[in-house]
Amino acid sequence: MLPDAERAADELEPALTGEAAIEPAAPAAAPSLVLPAELAWAVYFLFIPFGVAAMAHANMGLVPAAALPFALNAIAPQVSYGVWYVVFQVGLIAILCAVRRTLDWRYLISFAVCAVGGALIDFNGAWMNDLFPVDSLGLSCLWFAVGFVIVAVTVYFCTRCQLPVMPIDTFPRDLCAAIDQPYARVKVWFDVITLLVTCAIGLVGGGALFGINVGTVVSALLMGRSVGFIQCIMDKRVAYRKHLPL
């Protein structure tokens, strides 16, 4: 057979047999921008208290993780909300250590971050109440929307900073790595389970729902998905490199 005829036969064979030539997939392009992970942590640390305070200022319900200690405080007021908040986060870290089968010393730093973050939440809430009182449904929705977006963006930075953050944010971030599941899925289940437990505590212990409103349900259902959406967009463009040995 002539060389040209042989070449034509080779090109025609895959079409006749139903087999197509398989070419290796092109490797995914690396992010064009690399930022310090410490910068991501700073954005998270400075802005998460503002976002949480804005959502609380809207008076449309607390986020699930904050509503649970609020319900415990309503049932057992002899223990302050701040103490219940710490107890709840200690419980989360204990569960995380059990799942990972290790005790990470960085979790101790997380509690220090939590203490400072709690003080910043109180500070932001105080000036919001003094300067921008909420006296209409429209303002409530506006403050909630602003707080929701800020929290979603800052939680994205939390998932990428590779540094100690508040235990409430550490739990879903480290759990998704421990069980090899996407962050968005773990975050949604964490918020939904926390919401259900909060409702059960309130109804069984006090016959009412404490800290639960429409905003709580919205946060439980959409926060994890929103963070996952931001991850999909940003991970194609930005990567983070840690410099501190933490």
Q: Quickly count the helices.
A: 9
Main sheet, how many strands, which sense, barrel?
2 strands, parallel
Secondary-structure content class: mainly alpha
Give the strand order, joined by hyphens, for the main sheet. 1-2
Q: Using only CA atoms, what is the Rg?
A: 24 Å
β content, as a range?
under 5%
Q: If you average the pLDDT, what whole number results? A: 82
**Total number of β-strand segments?**
2
Overview of this structure, please?
With 246 residues, this protein is mainly alpha-helical. Helices cover 72% and strands 3% of the residues. It is built from nine helices and two strands, in the order αβααααααααβ. A two-stranded parallel ribbon has the order 1-2. Helix 2 runs antiparallel to helix 6, helix 3 crosses helix 4 (81-100) and helix 3 runs parallel beside helix 8. The protein starts with a helix and ends in a 5-residue tail after the last strand. Mean pLDDT is 82; it is low at 5-27.
Summarize the SSE layout with pairings:
Layout: H1 3-17, E1 33-36, H2 37-57, H3 64-75, H4 81-100, H5 106-131, H6 137-160, H7 167-179, H8 183-206, H9 214-234, E2 238-241
Parallel strand pairs: 1-2
